[in-house]
Amino acid sequence: MGKYIIDEERMKSVEENYKRVLDNVKECAVKAGRNENEVRLMCVTKTVEPPYINRALELGADLIGENRVQEYLGKRDELELNGVEKHLIGHLQTNKVRQIVGEVDMIESVSSFKLAKEISRVSAARGIVTDCLAEVNIGEEESKSGIMPQELVDTLYQISELPAVRIKGLMAIPPICDMDEARRYFAMVRQYFIDIKDKKIDNIDMEILSMGMSADYPAAIAEGSNIVRVGSAIFGARKYN
Questions:
Q1: CA of residue 27 relative to chain centroid, distance
Q2: Confidence category of residue 170, pLDDT binned at 50, 70, 90
Q3: Is the pLDDT of residue 149 over 80?
Q4: Is 224 left (phi over 0), alpha (psi -120 to 50) or beta?
Q5: Could you tell me whether strands 165-172 and 85-88 are parallel, antiparallel, or unpaired per DSSP bridges?
C-alpha cells in the first residue's frame, strides 16, 4: 500500500460512516417490519482507493460493488477479498463481457437480451453459470440503460432459455428525484418483482431486489429492497481523476 498517501482523517471517517450506515440500514429494516439482517449493505467502490476499501472490509463489509470492469480488475489484487462477495453494478458493454465473466460473483446490470446472450456464451465456454440481475429502467429514461418495464417479462422469458445465465432478481436506479418520489419508483419495481415471482418462470428466480443508494436507501428498504448500494455515504464524495 506504499504507493497510496493515506489520509488518516478520511480513514477515520470511513470507519464512522460505515458503522453509521450499517446501523441505519438495520434500523430501516426493523422499521419496515423486517429482520435487521434481511438487508445487505453493499460498499460501492467506484473511484475509491484500496486502503479505504480494505478498512471497510476489516470492519466486516462482505459485499462490494464496482461500476467499471477496468477499475475493478486494476485494483482487485490489492483488496482483502477473502470471504467477500463481488458484484459488477455499472453498465456493461458486450465487448467487456469476456473480461469480467468469472471474475465477479454477480453481474447486476443485465440491461438487454443481447447482453445476457453474450454473458451466457462466454460463461458456457468457461464451464460456469453466471448469476445476474435484470436491470429495469424504471423511469424509462433514454439516457439510462436497462430493460424497459413493458418489455421486462418478455425479455426474461428469452433470457430463461440461455444455458449459462441465472437471473436471481431485479436491480433498478430511479430518476433523480426526492425521497418520496423515489419510493414510488421503488414500489413499482417491487410490484414487478412480485408479479414475476408469481409466474414461476424456469431459470428465473426472484430472490434479490437491489435498490437504493446513498441518497435514497431508506425509501428502498421500506419498499422491500434486500441489497442497498452505498458509496459516497461511506467513502465520501467521489474523486474523479
A1: 21
A2: very high
A3: yes
A4: left
A5: unpaired
Question: What does the mean pLDDT of the chain come to?
Answer: 96
Which is nearest to 189 in space by CA: 203, 210, 160?
210
Distance, CA of 40 to CA of 218 (rounded, Å): 13
Instruction: Render pLDDT for 97-115 as a digit per residue (tens, 0 to 9).
Output: 999 999 999 999 999 999 9
Amino acid at 180: D
Cβ–Cβ < 8 Å for 92, 109: yes
